[in-house]
Amino acid sequence: MSSSAAIGSIFSGCLWKEEARVSKDRKRGVRRLCVRGSVAPLQQRSMNVQISESTARIGVLGASGYTGSEIVRLLANHPYFGITLMTADRKAGQSFASVFPHLIKQDLPDLIAIKDADFSNVDAVFCCLPHGTTQEIIKALPKGLKIVDLSADFRLRNIKEYEEWYGQPHKAHELQKEAIYGLTEISREEVRSARLVANPGCYPTSIQLPLVPLIKANLIELENIIIDAKSGVSGAGRGAKEANLFTEISEGIHSYGITKHRHVPEIEQGLSDASETKVTVSFTPHLMPMSRGMQSTIYVKMAPGVTVEDLYKHLRISYEDEEFVVLLGKGAVPHTRNVRGSNYCFMNVFPDRIPGRAIIISVIDNLVKGASGQALQNLNIMMGFPENTGLLYQPLFP
């Protein structure tokens, strides 16, 4: 029996039913003492032997970057996943604590070069490598591994489109056909049976979550969708770049990738799937002088006869049972500071002063729901665990 199946058999009569019950009770406004965040740890304390024997063994490839360290932080409280392999070519031979001292209390293997990695002791991997380097590495991995790829290498189904936007040929055509685009709340069932999941980018996550349900319901027009998006500097990665120095970024707003940002085809692919016709958007990203956080302000034209109230009601229905996507109360403005460090997406919709148009604001933590948190959410589903496992960190404030 696989590790995930073993744990699934242990908890199928307890954890899953309790999770479903709490979800239903939450809809009715009933509060229970046995909440989702406390069920797994209570089970773990009483069943240490079974859990330790059934832990899924996790590899983190490219562990020395921001998304890699965030994976490790999130897994610290995951009762079923244990890290057995960590790679970082430039930091090979070093302890993880020496690279990320804030995680010094974690009991982790030392970092090694990927060429020295032994995958015989691994059940699933998070691939946190830069785009362009990931395809051949994943192609060489053992076929039995579950993989969540946080790079852009498998997000675009059209190989020619990948070559156009990333400036190099795709080197794993067959794997691209197998990859599932893992926008969890939209593609949950496809993720469940996947071996390879392409984790969405941060901007596309914040944009597609509000827009996809509205497009599917034909509530907004497909023309003149304008997206003004802003990200914390961690979204640019950990590599040393002059443009990302403190003195370059602080005390100002830095627009970049104007008309040619590589997330554009990913956004348009998702919206086109939802509409079943080609969608083109105007998208401009900006770096903000903050470490974390992402806000997408989206301007849309409503379909004839549709009101902002209709948009609000449909988003409420679409996400009322979701753990991590929250439609705020009417008039409440989403702020990045209120999702910092969490896997939540907060959103809301407002009337524009221009008749027939609406403004949608969506905020996430770009490193969590925009990257590592959604990756863990996806792997939980792929391995047969409740998708919120290890993800119930509440936002940090102030």
Automatic annotation (TrEMBL):
Residue ranges of every copy of the Semialdehyde dehydrogenase NAD-binding domain listed in the record: 57-194
Catalytic activity as recorded in UniProt: N-acetyl-L-glutamate 5-semialdehyde + phosphate + NADP(+) = N-acetyl-L-glutamyl 5-phosphate + NADPH + H(+)
Lineage: Eukaryota, Viridiplantae, Streptophyta, Embryophyta, Tracheophyta
Source organism: Stephania cephalantha
Catalytic residues (UniProt): 202
Name of the protein in question: Probable N-acetyl-gamma-glutamyl-phosphate reductase, chloroplastic
Stored Pfam families: Semialdhyde_dh (PF01118), Semialdhyde_dhC_1 (PF22698)
EC number annotated for this UniProt entry: 1.2.1.38
Source species, domain of life: Eukaryota
One of the protein's GO biological processes: L-arginine biosynthetic process
PANTHER family in alphabetical order: N-ACETYL-GAMMA-GLUTAMYL-PHOSPHATE REDUCTASE, CHLOROPLASTIC-RELATED (PTHR32338:SF10), N-ACETYL-GAMMA-GLUTAMYL-PHOSPHATE REDUCTASE, CHLOROPLASTIC-RELATED-RELATED (PTHR32338)
Keyword NADP: yes
Gene3D superfamilies for this protein: Dihydrodipicolinate Reductase, domain 2, NAD(P)-binding Rossmann-like Domain
